[in-house]
Amino acid sequence: MRRFSLASLLKEAVDGHQGWGRQWRAPDPKPAYDVVIVGGGGHGLATAYYLATVHGITNVAVLEKGWIGGGNTGRNTTIIRSNYLYDESAHLYEHALKLWEGLSQELNYNVMFSQRGVLMLAHNAHDVQSFKRHVYANRLNGIDNEWLSAEECKAFCPPLDISPDVRYPVVGGALQRRAGTARHDAVAWGYARGADARGVDIIQNCEVTGVRRDASGAATGVETTRGFIRAGRIGVVAAGNTSRVMAMADVRMPLESYPLQALVSEPVKPVFPCVVMSNAVHAYISQSDKGELVIGAGTDQYTSYSQQGGLHITTHTLDAICEIFPQFTRMRMLRSWGGIVDVTPDRSPIIGRTPVDNLFVNCGWGTGGFKATPGSGHVFAHTLATGQPHPINAPFTLDRFRTGRLIDEAAAAAVAH
Amino acid sequence: MLLIDCPFCGKRPEVEFHCGGEAHIARPADPAQVDDAIWAEHLFVRKNPRGLHAERWRHLHGCGQWFNALRDTYTDRFVETYKAGEQPKHPLTETRA
Ligand SMILES: Cc1cc2nc3c(=O)[nH]c(=O)nc-3n(C[C@H](O)[C@H](O)[C@H](O)COP(=O)(O)OP(=O)(O)OC[C@H]3O[C@@H](n4cnc5c(N)ncnc54)[C@H](O)[C@@H]3O)c2cc1C
Ligand SMILES: [Zn+2]
Known about the structure:
The complex is a heterodimer. In chain A, α2 packs parallel to α7 and α2 crosses α10. Chain A is an alpha/beta fold. The two termini of chain A are about 35 Å apart. In chain A, β13 and β14 form a beta hairpin. The radius of gyration of chain A is 21 Å and the shape is globular. By secondary structure, chain B is mainly beta. Chain B has one helix and six strands; from the N terminus they run βββαβββ. In chain B, a hairpin with a 7-residue loop joins β4 and β5. The mean pLDDT of chain B is about 95. Bound molecules: flavin-adenine dinucleotide and zinc ion (ZN). The site of zinc ion has 7 residues of chain B, from loops.
Protein backbone atom coordinates (compact mmCIF):
# COMPACT_ATOMS: atom_id res chain seq x y z
CA MET A 1 0.00 0.00 0.00
CA ARG A 2 1.37 3.36 -0.94
CA ARG A 3 0.98 5.69 2.03
CA PHE A 4 -0.64 9.05 1.50
CA SER A 5 1.44 11.92 2.91
CA LEU A 6 2.47 15.48 2.20
CA ALA A 7 5.53 14.12 0.40
CA SER A 8 3.45 11.82 -1.85
CA LEU A 9 1.06 14.69 -2.57
CA LEU A 10 3.92 17.02 -3.55
CA LYS A 11 5.50 14.36 -5.74
CA GLU A 12 2.22 13.74 -7.56
CA ALA A 13 1.60 17.47 -7.93
CA VAL A 14 4.94 17.78 -9.73
CA ASP A 15 4.19 14.71 -11.89
CA GLY A 16 0.69 15.91 -12.86
CA HIS A 17 -1.12 13.38 -10.62
CA GLN A 18 -0.49 10.55 -13.09
CA GLY A 19 0.91 8.05 -10.59
CA TRP A 20 -1.80 7.44 -8.01
CA GLY A 21 -2.96 4.08 -9.34
CA ARG A 22 -5.71 1.76 -8.10
CA GLN A 23 -6.21 1.60 -4.36
CA TRP A 24 -7.12 -2.11 -4.22
CA ARG A 25 -6.74 -5.11 -6.52
CA ALA A 26 -9.54 -6.84 -8.46
CA PRO A 27 -8.54 -10.49 -7.91
CA ASP A 28 -10.33 -13.60 -9.14
CA PRO A 29 -11.77 -15.66 -6.30
CA LYS A 30 -9.54 -18.41 -4.93
CA PRO A 31 -11.11 -21.86 -4.40
CA ALA A 32 -10.99 -21.54 -0.61
CA TYR A 33 -10.57 -18.99 2.19
CA ASP A 34 -10.34 -19.15 5.97
CA VAL A 35 -13.12 -16.55 6.19
CA VAL A 36 -15.61 -15.42 3.56
CA ILE A 37 -17.54 -12.19 4.21
CA VAL A 38 -20.83 -11.87 2.32
CA GLY A 39 -21.46 -8.17 1.63
CA GLY A 40 -18.99 -5.42 0.81
CA GLY A 41 -20.56 -2.57 2.72
CA GLY A 42 -18.72 -0.65 5.41
CA HIS A 43 -19.44 -3.30 8.04
CA GLY A 44 -18.19 -6.20 5.89
CA LEU A 45 -15.06 -4.33 4.81
CA ALA A 46 -14.30 -3.19 8.36
CA THR A 47 -14.69 -6.80 9.53
CA ALA A 48 -12.14 -7.94 6.95
CA TYR A 49 -9.78 -5.11 7.90
CA TYR A 50 -9.81 -5.98 11.61
CA LEU A 51 -9.53 -9.72 10.88
CA ALA A 52 -6.27 -8.88 9.15
CA THR A 53 -4.91 -6.19 11.48
CA VAL A 54 -6.07 -7.40 14.91
CA HIS A 55 -6.19 -11.17 14.42
CA GLY A 56 -3.63 -11.74 11.67
CA ILE A 57 -6.19 -13.61 9.55
CA THR A 58 -5.54 -12.51 5.98
CA ASN A 59 -6.79 -15.45 3.90
CA VAL A 60 -10.13 -13.63 3.66
CA ALA A 61 -12.50 -12.71 0.82
CA VAL A 62 -15.18 -10.05 0.81
CA LEU A 63 -17.85 -10.97 -1.76
CA GLU A 64 -19.99 -8.09 -3.03
CA LYS A 65 -22.82 -8.56 -5.53
CA GLY A 66 -22.53 -5.00 -6.85
CA TRP A 67 -19.81 -2.49 -6.06
CA ILE A 68 -18.39 -1.95 -2.58
CA GLY A 69 -20.25 0.66 -0.58
CA GLY A 70 -23.13 0.60 -3.09
CA GLY A 71 -25.66 -0.54 -0.49
CA ASN A 72 -26.71 1.43 2.55
CA THR A 73 -23.14 2.52 3.24
CA GLY A 74 -23.25 4.75 0.15
CA ARG A 75 -26.87 5.81 0.69
CA ASN A 76 -26.97 6.99 4.27
CA THR A 77 -27.01 10.45 5.82
CA THR A 78 -23.81 9.70 7.83
CA ILE A 79 -24.98 10.74 11.28
CA ILE A 80 -22.60 9.43 13.93
CA ARG A 81 -23.40 9.52 17.65
CA SER A 82 -23.28 7.22 20.66
CA ASN A 83 -25.91 8.61 23.05
CA TYR A 84 -28.06 5.47 23.18
CA LEU A 85 -30.10 4.71 26.29
CA TYR A 86 -29.30 1.17 27.36
CA ASP A 87 -25.88 0.10 28.62
CA GLU A 88 -25.46 -2.57 25.93
CA SER A 89 -26.11 -0.13 23.08
CA ALA A 90 -24.19 2.70 24.70
CA HIS A 91 -21.08 0.51 24.99
CA LEU A 92 -21.41 -0.71 21.40
CA TYR A 93 -21.86 2.70 19.79
CA GLU A 94 -19.30 4.39 22.06
CA HIS A 95 -16.78 1.69 21.09
CA ALA A 96 -17.42 2.72 17.48
CA LEU A 97 -17.21 6.45 18.23
CA LYS A 98 -13.81 6.01 19.90
CA LEU A 99 -12.58 4.18 16.80
CA TRP A 100 -13.98 6.94 14.54
CA GLU A 101 -11.89 9.47 16.48
CA GLY A 102 -8.66 7.89 15.23
CA LEU A 103 -9.88 6.32 12.00
CA SER A 104 -8.36 8.62 9.38
CA GLN A 105 -4.92 8.15 10.99
CA GLU A 106 -5.41 4.41 11.43
CA LEU A 107 -6.41 3.92 7.79
CA ASN A 108 -4.11 6.62 6.37
CA TYR A 109 -7.25 7.65 4.49
CA ASN A 110 -9.26 10.80 5.12
CA VAL A 111 -12.75 9.67 6.14
CA MET A 112 -13.60 13.33 6.85
CA PHE A 113 -14.89 12.54 10.32
CA SER A 114 -16.25 15.82 11.62
CA GLN A 115 -17.32 16.15 15.26
CA ARG A 116 -19.63 19.07 14.60
CA GLY A 117 -22.18 17.98 17.20
CA VAL A 118 -25.59 16.32 16.86
CA LEU A 119 -28.51 18.21 18.34
CA MET A 120 -31.79 16.35 18.93
CA LEU A 121 -34.76 18.65 19.22
CA ALA A 122 -37.45 18.22 21.86
CA HIS A 123 -40.91 19.43 20.84
CA ASN A 124 -43.13 18.36 23.75
CA ALA A 125 -43.15 17.24 27.36
CA HIS A 126 -42.59 13.61 26.44
CA ASP A 127 -39.49 14.47 24.40
CA VAL A 128 -38.11 16.52 27.29
CA GLN A 129 -38.53 13.67 29.76
CA SER A 130 -37.15 11.07 27.38
CA PHE A 131 -34.13 13.14 26.30
CA LYS A 132 -33.23 14.08 29.89
CA ARG A 133 -33.38 10.41 30.79
CA HIS A 134 -30.97 9.78 27.93
CA VAL A 135 -28.64 12.57 29.09
CA TYR A 136 -28.43 11.12 32.60
CA ALA A 137 -28.10 7.51 31.43
CA ASN A 138 -25.34 8.51 29.02
CA ARG A 139 -23.42 10.38 31.72
CA LEU A 140 -23.51 7.29 33.95
CA ASN A 141 -21.83 5.49 31.06
CA GLY A 142 -19.23 8.23 30.62
CA ILE A 143 -20.77 9.37 27.33
CA ASP A 144 -21.13 13.09 26.67
CA ASN A 145 -24.66 14.36 26.16
CA GLU A 146 -26.08 17.59 27.51
CA TRP A 147 -29.43 19.29 27.80
CA LEU A 148 -29.86 22.69 26.09
CA SER A 149 -32.67 25.22 26.51
CA ALA A 150 -34.39 26.45 23.34
CA GLU A 151 -32.24 29.62 23.44
CA GLU A 152 -29.07 27.55 23.78
CA CYS A 153 -30.20 25.41 20.83
CA LYS A 154 -30.62 28.58 18.77
CA ALA A 155 -27.15 29.79 19.78
CA PHE A 156 -25.64 26.46 18.74
CA CYS A 157 -27.62 26.30 15.49
CA PRO A 158 -28.62 29.80 14.32
CA PRO A 159 -30.89 28.72 11.39
CA LEU A 160 -33.30 27.20 13.91
CA ASP A 161 -36.68 28.91 14.38
CA ILE A 162 -37.53 28.75 18.08
CA SER A 163 -40.53 31.07 18.06
CA PRO A 164 -43.34 29.57 20.14
CA ASP A 165 -46.05 29.88 17.47
CA VAL A 166 -44.54 27.42 14.95
CA ARG A 167 -46.15 24.08 14.21
CA TYR A 168 -43.34 22.15 15.92
CA PRO A 169 -42.17 24.44 18.74
CA VAL A 170 -38.65 23.76 20.01
CA VAL A 171 -38.68 23.45 23.79
CA GLY A 172 -35.07 22.31 24.16
CA GLY A 173 -32.62 19.76 22.89
CA ALA A 174 -30.04 17.14 23.72
CA LEU A 175 -26.57 17.80 22.32
CA GLN A 176 -23.73 15.33 21.90
CA ARG A 177 -20.73 17.47 20.98
CA ARG A 178 -18.47 14.54 20.04
CA ALA A 179 -21.07 13.33 17.54
CA GLY A 180 -21.02 14.36 13.87
CA THR A 181 -20.64 13.03 10.34
CA ALA A 182 -18.13 11.29 8.07
CA ARG A 183 -17.70 10.75 4.34
CA HIS A 184 -19.57 7.48 3.65
CA ASP A 185 -17.71 6.40 0.48
CA ALA A 186 -14.34 7.13 2.03
CA VAL A 187 -15.15 4.77 4.90
CA ALA A 188 -15.78 1.88 2.50
CA TRP A 189 -12.76 2.77 0.36
CA GLY A 190 -10.41 3.33 3.30
CA TYR A 191 -11.24 -0.05 4.85
CA ALA A 192 -11.07 -1.75 1.43
CA ARG A 193 -7.63 -0.29 0.74
CA GLY A 194 -6.34 -1.22 4.19
CA ALA A 195 -7.72 -4.77 4.02
CA ASP A 196 -6.46 -5.32 0.46
CA ALA A 197 -2.97 -4.17 1.42
CA ARG A 198 -2.87 -6.94 4.03
CA GLY A 199 -3.91 -9.64 1.57
CA VAL A 200 -7.72 -9.64 1.75
CA ASP A 201 -9.38 -10.31 -1.64
CA ILE A 202 -12.18 -7.85 -2.39
CA ILE A 203 -14.31 -9.42 -5.09
CA GLN A 204 -16.98 -7.21 -6.64
CA ASN A 205 -19.78 -8.30 -8.99
CA CYS A 206 -19.87 -11.62 -7.16
CA GLU A 207 -23.29 -12.51 -5.76
CA VAL A 208 -23.72 -15.25 -3.19
CA THR A 209 -26.55 -17.51 -4.39
CA GLY A 210 -26.34 -20.44 -1.99
CA VAL A 211 -24.76 -21.77 1.19
CA ARG A 212 -23.33 -25.29 0.98
CA ARG A 213 -23.59 -27.48 4.07
CA ASP A 214 -22.14 -30.87 4.97
CA ALA A 215 -23.91 -33.91 6.39
CA SER A 216 -23.68 -32.52 9.94
CA GLY A 217 -25.39 -29.33 8.78
CA ALA A 218 -22.29 -27.13 9.13
CA ALA A 219 -21.66 -24.52 6.45
CA THR A 220 -18.69 -25.34 4.23
CA GLY A 221 -18.78 -22.61 1.61
CA VAL A 222 -20.86 -20.42 -0.66
CA GLU A 223 -22.20 -20.80 -4.17
CA THR A 224 -21.65 -17.60 -6.12
CA THR A 225 -22.13 -16.20 -9.60
CA ARG A 226 -18.38 -16.84 -9.95
CA GLY A 227 -18.47 -20.44 -8.78
CA PHE A 228 -18.26 -22.31 -5.48
CA ILE A 229 -15.95 -20.87 -2.82
CA ARG A 230 -15.00 -23.01 0.18
CA ALA A 231 -14.89 -21.22 3.53
CA GLY A 232 -13.74 -22.10 7.03
CA ARG A 233 -16.14 -19.54 8.44
CA ILE A 234 -18.76 -17.37 6.75
CA GLY A 235 -19.80 -13.94 7.98
CA VAL A 236 -23.05 -12.61 6.50
CA VAL A 237 -23.07 -8.79 6.51
CA ALA A 238 -25.73 -8.17 3.88
CA ALA A 239 -27.96 -5.50 5.55
CA GLY A 240 -31.36 -5.35 3.78
CA ASN A 241 -30.70 -8.67 2.01
CA THR A 242 -29.82 -10.64 5.14
CA SER A 243 -33.11 -12.58 5.28
CA ARG A 244 -32.50 -13.79 1.72
CA VAL A 245 -28.91 -14.87 2.32
CA MET A 246 -29.75 -16.61 5.60
CA ALA A 247 -32.66 -18.41 3.92
CA MET A 248 -30.01 -20.05 1.70
CA ALA A 249 -28.86 -21.83 4.88
CA ASP A 250 -32.45 -22.44 6.06
CA VAL A 251 -32.15 -19.90 8.88
CA ARG A 252 -35.25 -17.76 9.37
CA MET A 253 -34.53 -14.30 10.77
CA PRO A 254 -36.38 -11.80 12.99
CA LEU A 255 -35.93 -9.12 10.33
CA GLU A 256 -38.02 -7.00 8.00
CA SER A 257 -36.54 -4.95 5.15
CA TYR A 258 -37.96 -1.44 4.68
CA PRO A 259 -37.18 1.39 2.28
CA LEU A 260 -35.49 4.39 3.87
CA GLN A 261 -35.09 7.56 1.84
CA ALA A 262 -32.81 10.57 1.84
CA LEU A 263 -32.31 13.61 -0.35
CA VAL A 264 -29.82 16.40 -0.98
CA SER A 265 -30.27 20.01 -2.05
CA GLU A 266 -28.28 22.04 -4.49
CA PRO A 267 -24.92 23.03 -2.96
CA VAL A 268 -24.74 26.38 -1.17
CA LYS A 269 -22.17 28.21 0.96
CA PRO A 270 -21.76 27.06 4.57
CA VAL A 271 -25.06 27.81 6.33
CA PHE A 272 -25.54 24.91 8.69
CA PRO A 273 -22.96 24.26 11.43
CA CYS A 274 -24.05 20.95 12.95
CA VAL A 275 -26.45 18.03 12.61
CA VAL A 276 -30.03 18.50 13.79
CA MET A 277 -32.46 15.65 14.30
CA SER A 278 -36.10 15.80 15.16
CA ASN A 279 -37.60 12.41 15.85
CA ALA A 280 -41.05 13.74 16.55
CA VAL A 281 -41.35 15.14 13.04
CA HIS A 282 -39.17 12.53 11.29
CA ALA A 283 -36.50 14.79 9.89
CA TYR A 284 -32.77 15.22 10.20
CA ILE A 285 -30.43 17.57 8.41
CA SER A 286 -26.79 18.52 8.03
CA GLN A 287 -24.66 20.20 5.37
CA SER A 288 -22.03 18.22 3.51
CA ASP A 289 -18.59 19.66 2.87
CA LYS A 290 -19.67 20.00 -0.79
CA GLY A 291 -22.39 22.38 0.43
CA GLU A 292 -25.48 20.24 -0.11
CA LEU A 293 -28.07 20.02 2.62
CA VAL A 294 -28.34 16.31 3.45
CA ILE A 295 -31.83 15.44 4.61
CA GLY A 296 -33.18 12.11 5.82
CA ALA A 297 -36.71 10.86 6.29
CA GLY A 298 -38.43 8.02 8.11
CA THR A 299 -39.01 4.55 6.66
CA ASP A 300 -41.91 3.70 4.39
CA GLN A 301 -44.55 1.54 6.08
CA TYR A 302 -44.25 -1.63 3.95
CA THR A 303 -41.38 -4.06 3.37
CA SER A 304 -39.63 -3.72 0.02
CA TYR A 305 -36.47 -4.53 -1.92
CA SER A 306 -37.09 -1.90 -4.60
CA GLN A 307 -34.65 0.68 -3.15
CA GLN A 308 -37.39 3.26 -3.71
CA GLY A 309 -40.06 4.76 -1.53
CA GLY A 310 -43.10 6.99 -1.69
CA LEU A 311 -42.79 10.68 -2.54
CA HIS A 312 -45.20 11.55 0.27
CA ILE A 313 -42.57 10.39 2.80
CA THR A 314 -39.93 12.87 1.58
CA THR A 315 -42.54 15.60 1.14
CA HIS A 316 -43.60 15.19 4.75
CA THR A 317 -39.97 15.48 5.83
CA LEU A 318 -39.43 18.64 3.79
CA ASP A 319 -42.59 20.16 5.32
CA ALA A 320 -41.02 19.69 8.73
CA ILE A 321 -37.61 21.00 7.64
CA CYS A 322 -39.14 24.16 6.19
CA GLU A 323 -41.14 24.75 9.35
CA ILE A 324 -38.12 24.39 11.64
CA PHE A 325 -35.69 26.20 9.30
CA PRO A 326 -37.75 28.79 7.37
CA GLN A 327 -34.66 30.03 5.49
CA PHE A 328 -34.61 26.78 3.49
CA THR A 329 -38.07 27.13 1.95
CA ARG A 330 -36.60 28.28 -1.37
CA MET A 331 -33.84 25.65 -1.58
CA ARG A 332 -34.13 23.26 -4.52
CA MET A 333 -33.61 19.55 -4.04
CA LEU A 334 -31.16 17.86 -6.41
CA ARG A 335 -31.49 14.12 -5.82
CA SER A 336 -33.41 11.65 -3.70
CA TRP A 337 -32.85 7.92 -3.28
CA GLY A 338 -33.68 4.96 -1.10
CA GLY A 339 -31.87 2.14 0.64
CA ILE A 340 -33.24 -1.08 2.11
CA VAL A 341 -32.75 -1.30 5.85
CA ASP A 342 -33.02 -4.51 7.88
CA VAL A 343 -35.05 -3.83 11.00
CA THR A 344 -35.21 -6.08 14.09
CA PRO A 345 -38.17 -6.14 16.50
CA ASP A 346 -36.16 -4.35 19.23
CA ARG A 347 -34.28 -2.04 16.79
CA SER A 348 -30.93 -3.38 18.00
CA PRO A 349 -28.49 -5.29 15.78
CA ILE A 350 -27.74 -9.02 15.77
CA ILE A 351 -24.01 -9.84 15.86
CA GLY A 352 -22.87 -13.38 16.45
CA ARG A 353 -23.37 -17.06 15.89
CA THR A 354 -26.32 -18.72 14.17
CA PRO A 355 -27.83 -22.21 14.57
CA VAL A 356 -25.64 -23.30 11.62
CA ASP A 357 -22.01 -24.09 12.53
CA ASN A 358 -19.41 -21.87 10.80
CA LEU A 359 -22.12 -19.40 9.78
CA PHE A 360 -22.09 -16.03 11.57
CA VAL A 361 -24.26 -12.97 11.03
CA ASN A 362 -23.95 -9.23 11.57
CA CYS A 363 -27.24 -7.50 10.68
CA GLY A 364 -30.28 -5.66 11.93
CA TRP A 365 -28.60 -2.26 11.98
CA GLY A 366 -31.74 -0.89 10.41
CA THR A 367 -31.88 2.85 9.99
CA GLY A 368 -28.81 3.62 12.07
CA GLY A 369 -25.78 1.42 11.50
CA PHE A 370 -23.38 3.70 9.65
CA LYS A 371 -22.28 5.23 12.95
CA ALA A 372 -21.35 1.77 14.21
CA THR A 373 -19.24 0.74 11.21
CA PRO A 374 -15.79 0.62 12.88
CA GLY A 375 -17.06 -0.90 16.13
CA SER A 376 -19.26 -3.43 14.38
CA GLY A 377 -16.38 -4.60 12.18
CA HIS A 378 -14.05 -4.74 15.19
CA VAL A 379 -16.27 -6.94 17.38
CA PHE A 380 -17.48 -9.11 14.48
CA ALA A 381 -13.87 -9.79 13.46
CA HIS A 382 -13.27 -10.95 17.03
CA THR A 383 -16.32 -13.22 16.83
CA LEU A 384 -15.24 -14.72 13.50
CA ALA A 385 -11.62 -15.14 14.60
CA THR A 386 -12.32 -16.77 17.96
CA GLY A 387 -15.77 -18.27 17.43
CA GLN A 388 -16.86 -16.38 20.56
CA PRO A 389 -18.41 -12.92 20.94
CA HIS A 390 -16.39 -9.94 22.12
CA PRO A 391 -17.81 -8.76 25.50
CA ILE A 392 -19.31 -5.75 23.68
CA ASN A 393 -21.40 -7.81 21.23
CA ALA A 394 -22.17 -10.66 23.64
CA PRO A 395 -25.69 -9.29 24.43
CA PHE A 396 -26.58 -8.87 20.73
CA THR A 397 -27.35 -12.52 20.02
CA LEU A 398 -29.90 -13.97 17.65
CA ASP A 399 -31.07 -16.09 20.56
CA ARG A 400 -32.27 -13.05 22.54
CA PHE A 401 -35.59 -13.22 20.70
CA ARG A 402 -36.10 -16.65 22.25
CA THR A 403 -34.83 -15.85 25.74
CA GLY A 404 -36.61 -12.50 25.85
CA ARG A 405 -33.49 -10.48 26.72
CA LEU A 406 -34.30 -7.79 24.17
CA ILE A 407 -32.36 -4.53 23.95
CA ASP A 408 -35.37 -2.42 23.32
CA GLU A 409 -34.01 0.87 22.02
CA ALA A 410 -37.19 1.22 19.96
CA ALA A 411 -39.41 1.61 22.98
CA ALA A 412 -36.78 3.64 24.79
CA ALA A 413 -36.28 6.31 22.22
CA ALA A 414 -38.45 6.02 19.11
CA VAL A 415 -35.27 7.31 17.55
CA ALA A 416 -34.44 6.74 13.92
CA HIS A 417 -30.71 7.44 13.82
CA MET B 1 -47.15 6.33 -3.53
CA LEU B 2 -48.90 3.00 -3.85
CA LEU B 3 -52.42 2.69 -5.25
CA ILE B 4 -54.25 0.12 -3.15
CA ASP B 5 -57.45 -1.68 -4.08
CA CYS B 6 -59.51 -1.94 -0.88
CA PRO B 7 -61.86 -4.96 -1.29
CA PHE B 8 -64.63 -2.81 0.19
CA CYS B 9 -64.04 0.65 -1.31
CA GLY B 10 -61.93 0.22 -4.46
CA LYS B 11 -58.67 1.92 -5.42
CA ARG B 12 -57.41 4.54 -2.99
CA PRO B 13 -54.01 6.22 -2.35
CA GLU B 14 -51.61 4.64 0.11
CA VAL B 15 -51.86 7.51 2.61
CA GLU B 16 -55.37 6.30 3.50
CA PHE B 17 -53.95 2.94 4.61
CA HIS B 18 -51.95 1.44 7.43
CA CYS B 19 -49.74 -1.58 6.70
CA GLY B 20 -49.99 -4.33 9.31
CA GLY B 21 -47.12 -6.54 8.19
CA GLU B 22 -47.03 -10.23 7.24
CA ALA B 23 -50.44 -11.94 6.95
CA HIS B 24 -51.62 -15.42 7.90
CA ILE B 25 -49.54 -15.66 11.08
CA ALA B 26 -51.58 -17.88 13.38
CA ARG B 27 -51.24 -17.59 17.13
CA PRO B 28 -50.25 -20.96 18.69
CA ALA B 29 -53.51 -22.82 19.33
CA ASP B 30 -52.55 -24.00 22.81
CA PRO B 31 -50.26 -21.28 24.21
CA ALA B 32 -49.37 -23.19 27.37
CA GLN B 33 -48.01 -26.13 25.38
CA VAL B 34 -45.49 -24.32 23.16
CA ASP B 35 -41.89 -23.53 24.09
CA ASP B 36 -39.99 -20.25 23.85
CA ALA B 37 -38.62 -21.06 20.41
CA ILE B 38 -42.11 -21.33 18.96
CA TRP B 39 -43.16 -18.11 20.66
CA ALA B 40 -40.10 -16.35 19.22
CA GLU B 41 -41.03 -17.68 15.80
CA HIS B 42 -44.60 -16.44 16.21
CA LEU B 43 -43.77 -13.02 17.61
CA PHE B 44 -40.56 -12.04 15.86
CA VAL B 45 -39.51 -14.18 12.91
CA ARG B 46 -40.77 -13.02 9.50
CA LYS B 47 -40.51 -14.36 5.94
CA ASN B 48 -39.38 -10.98 4.59
CA PRO B 49 -39.20 -12.32 1.02
CA ARG B 50 -37.98 -10.57 -2.09
CA GLY B 51 -40.99 -11.40 -4.27
CA LEU B 52 -44.59 -12.15 -3.42
CA HIS B 53 -45.58 -11.21 0.11
CA ALA B 54 -48.95 -11.77 1.77
CA GLU B 55 -49.57 -8.85 4.10
CA ARG B 56 -52.27 -7.16 6.13
CA TRP B 57 -53.51 -3.67 5.40
CA ARG B 58 -56.13 -1.53 7.09
CA HIS B 59 -58.14 1.11 5.25
CA LEU B 60 -57.62 3.43 8.20
CA HIS B 61 -58.93 6.69 6.71
CA GLY B 62 -61.75 4.98 4.80
CA CYS B 63 -63.91 2.05 5.74
CA GLY B 64 -61.62 1.11 8.64
CA GLN B 65 -61.54 -2.57 7.63
CA TRP B 66 -58.57 -4.91 7.76
CA PHE B 67 -57.90 -6.95 4.63
CA ASN B 68 -55.05 -8.91 3.03
CA ALA B 69 -52.95 -8.21 -0.03
CA LEU B 70 -50.43 -10.00 -2.17
CA ARG B 71 -47.66 -7.63 -3.21
CA ASP B 72 -44.37 -8.14 -5.02
CA THR B 73 -41.74 -6.58 -2.75
CA TYR B 74 -39.32 -6.23 -5.67
CA THR B 75 -41.58 -4.03 -7.83
CA ASP B 76 -43.99 -2.90 -5.07
CA ARG B 77 -46.87 -3.94 -7.41
CA PHE B 78 -50.02 -5.38 -5.85
CA VAL B 79 -51.04 -8.71 -7.38
CA GLU B 80 -54.37 -8.97 -5.55
CA THR B 81 -56.23 -7.89 -2.44
CA TYR B 82 -58.63 -10.18 -0.59
CA LYS B 83 -60.71 -10.20 2.55
CA ALA B 84 -59.44 -11.23 5.99
CA GLY B 85 -59.94 -14.94 6.56
CA GLU B 86 -59.61 -15.75 2.84
CA GLN B 87 -56.62 -17.19 1.00
CA PRO B 88 -55.06 -15.52 -2.05
CA LYS B 89 -56.01 -16.79 -5.53
CA HIS B 90 -52.44 -16.45 -6.75
CA PRO B 91 -49.97 -19.14 -5.57
CA LEU B 92 -47.66 -17.77 -2.89
CA THR B 93 -44.67 -19.89 -3.80
CA GLU B 94 -43.09 -17.40 -6.15
CA THR B 95 -39.99 -15.79 -4.67
CA ARG B 96 -37.43 -13.93 -6.70
CA ALA B 97 -33.90 -15.22 -6.66
C1 LIG C 1 -31.35 6.71 3.48
C2 LIG C 1 -30.56 6.13 4.62
C3 LIG C 1 -30.09 6.96 5.63
C4 LIG C 1 -29.37 6.45 6.70
N1 LIG C 1 -28.85 7.32 7.60
C5 LIG C 1 -28.04 6.86 8.59
C6 LIG C 1 -27.41 7.79 9.47
O1 LIG C 1 -27.55 9.01 9.36
N2 LIG C 1 -26.62 7.28 10.45
C7 LIG C 1 -26.41 5.94 10.60
O2 LIG C 1 -25.70 5.55 11.53
N3 LIG C 1 -26.99 5.05 9.76
C8 LIG C 1 -27.79 5.47 8.75
N4 LIG C 1 -28.37 4.58 7.88
C9 LIG C 1 -28.17 3.14 8.09
C10 LIG C 1 -26.83 2.70 7.56
O3 LIG C 1 -26.69 3.11 6.21
C11 LIG C 1 -26.69 1.18 7.62
O4 LIG C 1 -27.06 0.67 8.88
C12 LIG C 1 -25.25 0.76 7.36
O5 LIG C 1 -24.68 1.48 6.30
C13 LIG C 1 -25.20 -0.72 7.08
O6 LIG C 1 -23.92 -1.06 6.61
P1 LIG C 1 -23.65 -2.47 6.01
O7 LIG C 1 -22.23 -2.49 5.59
O8 LIG C 1 -24.12 -3.50 6.96
O9 LIG C 1 -24.67 -2.56 4.79
P2 LIG C 1 -24.53 -2.21 3.24
O10 LIG C 1 -23.68 -1.03 2.99
O11 LIG C 1 -25.91 -2.20 2.68
O12 LIG C 1 -23.73 -3.46 2.70
C14 LIG C 1 -24.32 -4.73 2.48
C15 LIG C 1 -23.78 -5.22 1.17
O13 LIG C 1 -24.15 -6.58 0.98
C16 LIG C 1 -24.28 -6.78 -0.40
N5 LIG C 1 -25.03 -8.02 -0.62
C17 LIG C 1 -26.33 -8.26 -0.31
N6 LIG C 1 -26.68 -9.51 -0.69
C18 LIG C 1 -25.56 -10.07 -1.23
C19 LIG C 1 -25.29 -11.35 -1.80
N7 LIG C 1 -26.23 -12.30 -1.90
N8 LIG C 1 -24.04 -11.59 -2.27
C20 LIG C 1 -23.07 -10.65 -2.19
N9 LIG C 1 -23.29 -9.41 -1.66
C21 LIG C 1 -24.52 -9.12 -1.18
C22 LIG C 1 -25.01 -5.52 -0.87
O14 LIG C 1 -24.86 -5.32 -2.25
C23 LIG C 1 -24.35 -4.45 -0.02
O15 LIG C 1 -23.31 -3.77 -0.68
C24 LIG C 1 -29.12 5.05 6.80
C25 LIG C 1 -29.60 4.20 5.80
C26 LIG C 1 -30.29 4.73 4.71
C27 LIG C 1 -30.78 3.80 3.64
ZN1 LIG D 1 -62.02 0.55 2.41
